[in-house]
Amino acid sequence: MKKKNKIVDFNEHILREYGPRGTKEREAFEEGFEAFKLGIMLQQLRKTKGMTQEQLAKKCGTTKNYISRIENNASDIRLSTLMRIIRDGLGGHLKLNVEL
Predict the structure, then answer these.
(1) Burial of 76 by CB count in 10 Å (0-12 exposed, 13-18 middle, 19+ buried)?
(2) How many domains, in total, are found in the chain?
(3) Does any domain span residue 30?
(4) Along the chain (100 residues), what's the average pLDDT of each consecutive run of 10 residues?
(5) Is the residue at 97 inside a domain?
């Protein structure tokens, strides 16, 4: 007999896979997910501006390879570098939000 798949919401899935907030596994997941979202956000902003990775890199004083690594979640990024990419490269302002 074929087993039916039960559809669960995303938060329930994350809880099952990584445990509750505060556990080592869950916090590692959350940190990685935030880095992934940052890379996607930067890529979308760059594309909205009609820029290539190379053009963005030149405007903010870094390399195409570094921009690519950030967009593909393959590199940690310093806050000062992120601010420079947003300010100098994309003409924006970075605002941070902390949740406790």
Answers:
(1) exposed
(2) 1
(3) yes
(4) 76 93 93 91 96 97 95 87 96 90
(5) no
Residue 28 Cα to chain centre, angstroms: 14
Task: Identify the burial level of 73 via C-beta atoms within 10 angstroms of its C-beta, where 0-12 means exposed, 13-18 middle and 19 or more buried.
Answer: middle
At what angle are helices 24-48 and 10-18 packed, to 10 degrees? Answer: 130
- Give the sign of the dihedral formed by CA 68, CA 73, CA 76, CA 81: positive
Q: In the numeric block, which tokens belong to residue 4?
A: 């039916």
The model's pTM is 0.78
Please give the pLDDT value at position 19.
Answer: 95
Question: pLDDT value at position 23?
Answer: 95
- Establish if 5 belongs to a structural domain: no
Q: What is the CATH number of the domain that holds 22?
A: 1.10.260.40
| Contact between 56 and 85 (Cβ < 8 Å) | yes
Residue 96 lies in a domain: no
